[in-house]
Amino acid sequence: MRAALITQPRNLEVRELPTPHPGPLEVRVRVGATGVCGTDLHLFEGHFHARLPLVPGHEIAGIIDEVGPGVRGLEEGQLVALDPVIACGQCWACRRGQRQHCLAFQALGVTQAGGFAQYVIAPASNVYPVQGLSMEEAAFAEPLGCVAWGLLRLRPEPGSQALLFGAGPIGLLLMQALLISGASRVVVVDPVAERLALAQQLGAQATVQSGPELEGHLRDLAPHGFDIVAEATGVPSVVAQMPHYAAVGGKLLIFGVAPEEARVSFSPYDIFQRDLSIIGSFSLNGTLPLALEWLQSRRIQVQPLISHRLPLEELAQALAYKEQPGMARSLKVLITPE
Length: 338
Ligand SMILES: [Zn+2]
Ligand SMILES: [Zn+2]
Description:
Number of domains: 2
Shape: globular
Number of strands: 17
Structural class: alpha/beta
Helix content: 25-40%
Number of helices: 12
Bound molecules: zinc ion
Order of helices and strands: EEEHEEEHEEEHHEHEHEHEHEHEHEHHE
């Protein structure tokens, strides 16, 4: 099979690899579409303790084409979405229901071969049959599963006013999820005008382009601040200003992936005195079924978020788009290995 392999930091090669066969309790999936994510860029740069060589790609949809011994309830020909998080089920974190913090954490496309290949092997328990979705839509189950975990962490109160920084593909998923999970209005901030137009089209109550007038505009929209301030940017200077825009009793959701070494400062007195909550959300935790429910019920639109469909050979180009999203006008890039 053909597979894209990170051989060493910043080196990507498409190679012919032996086509794998599933072992006990595993299935083989012929990959139909795999989304490109910021995590792939981090792995490409050798961060996240990347164990190279690695076939990246963890936002995977495809068709089951071989079923290993002992697998129940899955069959060849089914369209499936994959949960990349492989948890041991036995450690301290797993027993507390925190699979994504498994002490023996493995993940498709992160620690073992993922979806930027013609075929991928997955544990049967990570494979979810999909009904009524296209292959492309099914590839959003994983990133939307991360958003679903964020919403379970955040627990928006009914009627909340939300402010969201970042209208990239994840931000636009998060915005839609907020709107069907309790928030009555979401105001979206981003530097790129086209992204804001799409946010508006997908249900944002108002949008504001980042710039010197930002603070004034946001004060006009919510003079007492927002009940929820979320970010999907990973930009430390954005995170630093989140408390400033929160209403008393407000919740801050840190959803973007900031550089590990980044630090921000805000006033502990302010967090204390205004009853603010700071909430983090990492990866997904058994939330792929919730994401599939959102997709299959058509409450969340993903088709408008797809900007490019590229063959395996152009994964390097897709990662370059990820580095310069504004310039390339890219949103979600799907790799279609066929
Ligand atoms: Zn991802
Ligand atoms: Zn575990």
